[in-house]
Amino acid sequence: MELKLYYSTTVKPFDDERNQGFEGIFAFLKQLERRGIKCELIDTSELTAEQIGEAYINSVIGPTQLKRYRVRQVFGSARHSGWLFGKQVPALIVYRSGSRVPEDVYPHEKLGRTVTIKEYLEALLAQLQPPT
Fold first, then answer.
1. Phi-psi bin for 6: left (phi > 0), alpha (psi -120 to 50), beta?
2. Planar angle of CA 66, 69, 82, nearest 5 degrees
3. CA separation (Å) from 50 to 38, 68, 90?
4. Where are the domains of the chain?
5. pLDDT at 61 (0 to 100)
6. DSSP string, the chain
7. What is the residue-level pLDDT of the chain in tens, covering all 132 positions?
8. Model pTM?
9. How crowded is the C-beta side of 105, counted as CA atoms within 13 Å?
10. 104 contacts 63 by C-beta, under 8 angstroms
């Protein structure tokens, strides 16, 4: 498994349900790395708008079609999808080991509820054995 976190060191995330618990995310990622999960941090303030747009498209197409959840308005709006991706709304992309196709993207909306990055990481840590 590999995780990629898109976030900005220069833009503060929105203080809303999409980013609930974001301040603790880096500690969760360190715990996961100690358990053997590769975690990559990508600072979107170092990327061009085109690179961010490409990352957004590549990150959401597979999971939204396969898992049937919504991300368009999580990371933007109906008219401007993805403009908040990795900036005001940090994004966690989940890959299976050795795969270049994303399996999941967080946060996302499923059944009218936002599933946050924190929720996913807490559940993942609970599934893993403690480090030896």
1. beta
2. 105
3. 26, 26, 17
4. 2-127
5. 87
6. -EEEEEE-SSSPPPSSGGGTTGGGHHHHHHHHHHTT-EEEEEEGGGS-HHHHHHHHHHHHHHHHHHH--B-TTTSS-SSSTTTTBTTTB-EEEEE-TT-SSEEEEESEEETTEEEPHHHHHHHHHHHSPPP-
7. 999 999 999 999 999 999 999 999 999 999 999 999 999 999 999 999 999 999 999 999 888 777 888 899 999 998 888 999 999 999 999 999 888 889 999 999 999 999 999 999 999 999 986 655
8. 0.93
9. 31
10. yes
Q: Residue 96: how many CB atoms within 10 A of its CB?
A: 12
Q: What tokens were used for 26?
A: 């880096």
Please check whether residue 117 is in contact with residue 90, taking contact to mean a CB–CB distance below 8 angstroms.
Answer: yes
